[in-house]
Amino acid sequence: xxxxxxxxSPKTEIIAVEPEGFNGMGSSLAHGAIETMPIGPKSICDGxxxxxxxxxxxxxxxxxxxxxxxxxxxxxxxxxxxxxxRMKLVLEPSGAAxxxxxxxxxxxxxxxxxxxVATGGNVSLADFISHMNDxxx
Length: 137
Description:
The chain is globular. By secondary structure, the chain is mainly alpha-helical. It contains 6 helices and 2 strands. Helices cover 42% and strands 7% of the residues. A two-stranded parallel ribbon has the order 1-2. The chain has one domain: Rossmann fold (3-Layer(aba) Sandwich), CATH 3.40.50. It starts with a helix and ends in a 5-residue tail after the last helix.
């Protein structure tokens, strides 16, 4: 997705969002080389829990000028809840990370047109209900 936006609109700022403790892509981009993150506590964003980026994805997002930010599980749960209550969207935790970054003020959007890629409904009903209740069943 980042490459498509980059080539269609080179001035578009692209932000990679990762869970706290699993920011291998963002850290690698910031330091200009692939880094491996230490094993940390789990995140509800299980689809984003890579400790390091692959060579091809890293090269692609680096070429597109992407930078990274992180979000915590509480902000992801909040984003999932807002997406469900206000937009009637069921998002899995990893798919809600970008919305969490926007809602949490991790990205300066003042005066800008913003697109949030929010994907996936790959979450069980029990887990979704738990996330809607701030992690409590």
